[in-house]
């Protein structure tokens, strides 16, 4: 029996089966299959935003949960992220055209002295997957880099991550600087990283500590919903 007979023909699946298959393909990090499936759904007149939320975000939510629970590991998650990026690349210009709901804008980066970026990359990717615009500053960011970026990008959220106990305190330096400049209340500050906890987040004056990428997305959505409600009420 040839390999080809084992292959699933994506275009022969109905919508529901195709979305389920996309969940599997994302999980397995199959970029080309995800790109093909996105194009099939577009041909079937699915709204870009629906493809993003139901297929891509739906699939990445499973990946995020299994990563949190220790079922998936970093290399597999990065493969899934890469497959998601393939789908996002097709959808991004279409989302812009259709004026998909703008969730908000986040500037994210690892703090000064810390070169660990896997957790940050995961958050960045999951946030994009949830419809946020993300500006990733990479690793080893000093105060100025964060401040300049949140101002220039007119961000809603600042995300900082650290993996070392020695670099954690730098988060407070950034927040204290924002307070001194009188801009602290203009932004939601989310912090994360393995050695952090809720108490630490409170102690340094962050809005929230997020224990993983899935929590970061949920937390960011809550803050943005609150902000939209306040604007509407105002």
UniProtKB/TrEMBL annotation:
EC assignment: 2.1.1.13
B12-binding domain: residues covered: 103-234
Keywords, alphabetical: Cobalt, Metal-binding, Methyltransferase, Transferase
Family annotation (SMART domains): B12-binding_2
Listed GO CC annotations: cytosol
Enzyme superclass (EC): transferase
A molecular function GO annotation: metal ion binding
First and last residue of the signal peptide: none
A Gene Ontology BP annotation from the UniProt entry: methylation
SUPFAM superfamilies to which the protein is assigned, alphabetical: Cobalamin (vitamin B12)-binding domain, Methionine synthase domain
Record domain B12-binding N-terminal: where: 9-103
Family to which the UniProt record says this protein belongs: Belongs to the methylamine corrinoid protein family.
Name of the protein this chain belongs to: Methionine synthase
Primary gene name: metH
């Amino acid at each position: 029996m040839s390999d080809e007979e084992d292959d699933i023909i994506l275009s022969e699946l109905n919508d529901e089966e195709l979305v389920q298959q996309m969940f599997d393909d994302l999980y397995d990090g199959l970029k080309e299959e995800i790109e093909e499936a996105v194009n099939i759904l577009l041909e079937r007149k699915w709204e870009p935003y629906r493809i993003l939320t139901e297929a891509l975000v739906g699939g990445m939510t499973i990946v995020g949960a299994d990563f949190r629970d220790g079922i998936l590991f970093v290399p597999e998650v990065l493969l899934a992220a890469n497959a998601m990026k393939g789908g996002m690349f097709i959808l991004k210009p279409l989302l812009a055209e259709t004026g998909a709901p703008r969730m908000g804008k986040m500037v994210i980066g690892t703090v000064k002295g810390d070169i660990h970026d896997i957790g940050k990359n995961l958050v960045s990717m999951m946030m994009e997957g949830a419809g946020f615009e993300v500006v990733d500053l990479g690793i080893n960011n000093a105060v100025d880099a964060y401040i300049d970026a949140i101002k220039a990008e007119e961000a809603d959220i600042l995300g900082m991550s650290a993996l070392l106990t020695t670099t954690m305190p730098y988060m407070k330096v950034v927040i204290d600087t924002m307070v001194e400049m009188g801009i602290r209340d203009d932004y939601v500050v989310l912090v994360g990283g393995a050695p952090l906890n809720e108490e630490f987040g409170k102690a340094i004056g962050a809005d929230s500590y997020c224990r993983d990428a899935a929590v970061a997305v949920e937390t960011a959505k809550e803050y943005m919903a609150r902000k939209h409600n306040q604007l509407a009420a105002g």
